[in-house]
Task: inverse folding
């Protein structure tokens, strides 16, 4: 059905996407039934090369999750995408994800694995044509294939019984795709450049499907996982969680920030999986496993919501630069509120999906500390502190995102200007000049217009990397100018305050799902814990009264927070409130005083300076000894670049040499074939092939 | 239920008592211990202020913060409101209060409020880790994260208990916003941490927030007394005296030194886990 829908999409975009959504609903129902009934349909796993498909409870969970996120994404795509090719690629992407979850043999698995890598790459290339993006896609494909070789090795070696080889190869292969530090560098570059529905599915689902592969291989196909794997997952997961959260903090491009936060959340899931391997007690081992799955679900919902929201924000304002957004709650009440719920969920505050899974993860690590031998106990406690610190970093990060996008008064001369310019459309150059001029802030108007005009070249990117109280204004101006120009050139937009219903309804639905999962997670936990190897029977009520915990009665907690809040807010509201300008200690709140993303994360950046190692530049322009301008910039370089840079260049060089083999001449290919056959015959003759 | 009601009613007494003791130790004639009640009464009668450009987040945040602290009071070992007594649930509820206040600061756009919120959240990164570690080190004898079980199984013979107590003492200083980490008496905007996000509020909103700050004292002092001191709640006055003494003896430290102090606390707690 998905394939048929994909074909239909090639001719008529919207009906095709809706048919895809209908197909996903059916698949989701099938998945949910498989999860609830814990039954197996179709073939069981075979380490062979003959196509086989099947469905069991673990696949069912991921399939249901895929449907829950894909249906809103498809409906959103109906209002967002314009290109039929992109719609077709979306169908291919979803088909590959579904197929991967249903694959029950090596060949099917690997075929869908490759399709899953290539479909979003193609979608990025269809949507964006500039050289920088092309290079990003090359890096993405190169790195995921280099790492993906691990998946091939792991799956092909499954039949041989080389358990250690398979475990290491799978950790590298699936870890690359999941974006675990230090194999993550492709992720924050590739996810942001894709069109919103693809970014959402890449960050929300694709990395999770990589974790699914990891779980399948390590926990099921290999028998019981080795203990070193638990330690490795714990270490790698903690590095990803803390590193991802820290680097998310210093971003100021919304989509890049979200991509880094994906690394953080994959890390937390990996920590929980590591705890599941290390804990001896079967009950808590299975609960740690369930914690990983709940975290995967919560993060998938929240991240898809935020990436789709980022697409909506980009449509409405023409920029993704956090320092130029703000006050969107006014302009996009529904979409903005849904976006805020997503931020709170990823910040891990109670009442939402993010908290339930973090609570379970913390509890599993606590029980690793209680039960394990001394060394593991200390490791568990350190991991516990690490996850708690990650939660704190996520709180800081997403409080910032929420404030910089949705809250506050619109930053006049900032967003609405750029937004108007983008929406007015028409002359691209005019939009660029106005978008640039509007963002000028502290910089002079003429200078900003210059920046806007130059922004199609290097200025946009250079400006994007520089931030800080001083440089942000000019850099932001250049960026917004570029965005304005791009948006203006693309198509004229209808005016109006709220985003189209097709964009905001899926967001609201996803926000409702985040709340629902946060409150009613308890009935799901026994089903998920049962998926762990050697899980004991677990009976739990809505209060999550697990042994060795103080229980987490989520529905009661929600009532205990919501009811007093409503009562107190009502008591406050009866007393007439005066309206006044923001006091701000006596200063008028001018746009130059607005806090930027960099300012909000400044205390933590100073604290973590030795880790982040920002490069600061200070440029003072003097004319006849009088200071005219001071420009401050800082760049935080991701440490992964230093690891991958040489590797990537070598791979690209090798590809350039290998290209010489591809002459395009039929006779050459015939010669290759002949050579291969002769070589094989010779080998057979010597008895080397047995 | 009585424990919860006592928390609601008596919480404002704690900062009042500490102020009085501090004044006494410094040879000043301070306010009466009941001063916070008088302030709450005064604020309750005043009208609130809605800064221009703020929305529902700003208006609801004080109520939400107060509600979170209410739930935190209900999670304490001395209260029994049917919400359980889980240590990590308490951490989560306090995080929600922090998030709400930071969101309100963003809604006003006031730079000083945001400065305080940013510092508060940055310290909370270390504070949450330290709190989790201190609780886990204390929970080792009980093998459970239930605060009641931890309080019941406390054993002064264990070195882990001493380490956890030391780490928790730092948590108390941080979460109650006391010197040397924060100065509750400061009215200089540039040095504020906890007071910062309160700047724009007035009237009943401010009353909620001040009660919440007092409830934070109650939560951490009662928790510290229940988990680590013989005598349980009855030891809370001892902790008040200790806080007043620390405030008198210590100057506020540089903000960037705070994480090092908290990191030290984490190492102490980890040593406790090792020693168990």
Result:
């Amino acid at each position: 059905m998905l394939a048929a829908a994909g074909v239909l999409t090639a001719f008529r975009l919207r009906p095709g996407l809706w048919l895809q959504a209908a197909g996903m609903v059916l698949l989701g129902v099938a998945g949910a039934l498989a999860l609830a009934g814990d039954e197996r349909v179709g073939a069981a796993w075979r380490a062979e090369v003959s196509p086989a498909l099947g469905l069991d409870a673990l696949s069912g969970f991921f399939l249901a999750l895929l449907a829950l996120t894909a249906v809103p994404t498809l409906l959103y795509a109906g209002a967002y995408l314009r290109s039929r090719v992109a719609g077709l690629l979306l169908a291919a992407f979803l088909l590959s994800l579904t197929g991967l979850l249903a694959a029950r043999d090596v060949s099917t698995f690997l075929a869908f694995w490759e399709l899953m890598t290539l479909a979003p790459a193609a979608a990025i290339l269809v949507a964006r044509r500039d050289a920088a993006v092309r290079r990003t896609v090359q890096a993405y494909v190169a790195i995921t294939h280099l790492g993906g070789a691990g998946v091939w090795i792991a799956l092909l070696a499954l039949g041989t019984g080389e358990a250690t080889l398979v475990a290491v190869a799978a950790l590298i292969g699936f870890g690359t795709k999941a974006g675990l530090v230090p194999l993550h560098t492709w992720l924050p570059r590739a996810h942001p450049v894709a069109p919103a529905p693809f970014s959402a599915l890449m960050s929300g689902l694709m990395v999770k499907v990589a974790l699914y592969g990891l779980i399948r291989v390590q926990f099921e196909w290999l028998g019981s996982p080795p203990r070193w794997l638990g330690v490795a997952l714990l270490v790698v997961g903690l590095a990803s969680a803390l590193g991802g959260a820290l680097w998310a903090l210093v971003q100021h491009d919304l989509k890049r920030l979200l991509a880094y936060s994906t690394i953080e959340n994959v890390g937390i899931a990996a920590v929980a999986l590591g705890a599941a391997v290390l804990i001896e007690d079967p009950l808590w081992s299975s609960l740690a496993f369930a914690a990983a799955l709940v975290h995967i679900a919560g993060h998938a919902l929240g991240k898809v919501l935020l990436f789709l929201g980022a697409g909506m924000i980009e449509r409405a304002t023409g920029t993704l630069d956090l320092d130029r957004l703000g006050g969107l709650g006014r302009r996009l009440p529904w979409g903005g509120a849904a976006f805020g719920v997503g931020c709170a969920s990823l910040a891990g505050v109670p009442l939402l999906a993010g908290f339930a899974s973090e609570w379970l993860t913390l509890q599993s690590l606590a029980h690793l500390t209680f039960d394990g031998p001394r060394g593991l106990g200390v490791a568990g406690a350190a991991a516990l502190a690490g996850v708690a610190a990650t939660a704190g970093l996520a709180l800081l990060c997403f409080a910032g995102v929420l404030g910089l996008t949705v809250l506050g008064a619109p930053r006049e001369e900032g967003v609405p200007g750029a937004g108007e310019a983008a929406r007015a459309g028409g002359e691209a150059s005019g939009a660029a000049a106005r978008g640039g001029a509007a963002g000028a802030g502290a910089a002079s108007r003429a200078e900003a217009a210059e920046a806007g005009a130059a922004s199609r070249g290097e200025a946009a990117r250079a400006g994007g990397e520089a931030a800080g109280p001083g440089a942000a204004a000019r850099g932001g101006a250049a960026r917004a100018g570029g965005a304005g120009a791009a948006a203006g050139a693309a198509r004229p937009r209808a005016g109006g305050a709220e985003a189209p219903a097709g964009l905001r309804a899926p967001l609201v639905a996803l926000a409702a799902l985040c709340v629902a999962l946060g409150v009613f997670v308890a009935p799901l936990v026994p089903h998920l814990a049962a998926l762990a190897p050697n899980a004991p029977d677990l009976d739990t009520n809505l209060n999550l009264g697990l042994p060795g915990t103080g229980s987490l009665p989520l529905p009661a907690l929600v009532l205990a927070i919501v009811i007093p809040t409503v009562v107190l807010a009502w008591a406050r509201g009866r007393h007439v409130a005066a309206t006044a300008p923001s006091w701000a200690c006596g200063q008028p709140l001018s746009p130059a005083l607005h806090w930027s993303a960099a300012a909000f994360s400044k205390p933590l950046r100073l604290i973590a300076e030795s880790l982040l190692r920002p490069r600061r530049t200070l440029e003072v322009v003097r004319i006849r000894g009088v200071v005219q301008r001071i420009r401050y910039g800082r760049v935080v370089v991701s440490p992964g670049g230093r690891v991958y840079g040489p590797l990537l260049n070598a791979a690209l060089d090798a590809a350039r040499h290998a290209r010489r083999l591809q002459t395009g001449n039929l006779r050459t290919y015939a010669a290759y074939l002949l050579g291969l056959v002769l070589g094989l015959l010779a080998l057979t003759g010597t008895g080397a092939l047995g | 239920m009585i424990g919860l009601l006592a928390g609601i009613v008596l919480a404002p007494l704690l900062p009042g008592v500490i102020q009085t003791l501090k004044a006494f130790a410094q040879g000043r004639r301070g306010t009466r211990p009941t001063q916070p009640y008088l302030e709450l009464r005064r604020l309750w009668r005043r009208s609130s202020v809605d800064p221009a450009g703020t929305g529902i987040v700003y208006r609801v945040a004080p109520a939400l913060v107060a509600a979170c602290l209410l739930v935190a009071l209900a999670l304490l070992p001395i209260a029994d409101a049917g919400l359980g007594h889980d240590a990590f649930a308490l951490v989560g509820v306090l995080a929600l209060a922090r998030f709400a206040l930071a969101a309100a600061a963003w809604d006003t756009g006031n730079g000083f409020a945001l400065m305080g919120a940013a510092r508060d959240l940055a310290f909370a990164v270390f504070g949450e880790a330290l709190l989790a570690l201190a609780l886990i080190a204390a929970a080792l004898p009980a093998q459970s994260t239930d605060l009641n079980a931890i309080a019941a199984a406390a054993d002064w013979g264990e070195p882990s208990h001493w380490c956890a107590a030391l780490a928790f003492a730092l948590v108390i200083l941080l979460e109650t916003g006391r010197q040397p980490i924060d100065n509750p008496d400061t009215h200089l905007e540039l040095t504020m941490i906890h007071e910062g996000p309160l700047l724009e509020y007035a009237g009943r909103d401010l009353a909620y927030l001040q009660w919440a700050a007092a409830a934070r004292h109650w939560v951490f002092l009662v928790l510290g007394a229940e988990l680590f001191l013989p005598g349980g709640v009855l030891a809370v006055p001892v902790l008040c005296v200790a806080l007043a003494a620390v405030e008198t003896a210590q100057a506020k430290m540089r903000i960037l030194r705070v994480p090092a102090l908290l990191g030290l606390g984490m190492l102490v707690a980890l040593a406790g886990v090792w020693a168990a």
Observations:
- The longest strand of chain A covers residues 626-635.
- Residues 413-496 of chain A have pLDDT under 50 and may be disordered.
- Residues 284 and 364 of chain A are 6 Å apart (CA to CA).
- Chain A has 28 helices and five strands.
